[in-house]
Amino acid sequence: MTALTDQPLFEFKNRRLEYQEETVLDxxxxxxxxxERVALVGGSGAGKSTLLKTLREQRSxxxxxxxxxxxxxxxxxxxxxxxxxxxxxxxxxxxxxxLIKPLPAARREVSGIARSIDLxxxxxxxVDKLSGGQQQRTSIGRALxxxxxxFIGDEPVANVDEYxxxxxxxxxxxxxxxxxxxxxxxxxxxxxxxxxxxxKDGVIALDAASDQLTASDLASLYDAV
Length: 225
Hints:
It contains eight helices and eight strands. By secondary structure, it is an alpha/beta fold. The protein has two domains: 1-62 and 149-225, P-loop containing nucleotide triphosphate hydrolases (Rossmann fold, 3-Layer(aba) Sandwich), CATH 3.40.50; 74-147, no CATH class. The strands form two sheets. A six-stranded mixed β-sheet has the order 4-5-6-3-7-8, sandwiched between helices. A two-stranded antiparallel sheet has the order 1-2. It is globular and about 50 Å long. 39% of the residues are buried.
């Protein structure tokens, strides 16, 4: 992993973030630096998704985005849905050829990603035939193929089992310089991220290194208001 630098990748100073014209986070001051692995934690409605989307907008050309709702094309195969993440790397003619009949180089690249996310057997099945966990892995594959330095994921492993979740989070962290994830699983956040940012009541209620925290330290973020 690249060492942290003095220049932040993302920075907010006294910002207000809104969702559907309602203030979600107020007086937000936050910096995230290259090389960090950041987990956003907090109860439902705390503003995690809104913050992730705003981060993505700051550096859209450097971010591999994995949203909570995968947004897959149901009638297309897992292969084509993963390959969609690479569309901007190739010409229109090349992309059209892959839509009609996958070309050898594209098959090799996508097959390698499919192996890494345990999706080889389903690669040429239409995604509407896949389970929720397989669809989520397809979405992660679509992000991985983008080959971008920053991975931003909104609950990227919520629909897979614990074993698969650990494999996928490890893979994401290995293949990206900087990672920012919204995670509902506190133990996963502590295990795979170096920094925990807790959101509650419209503000940052906690911001600390994960090795200085325990699961009980984060429990209050989920207490009812």
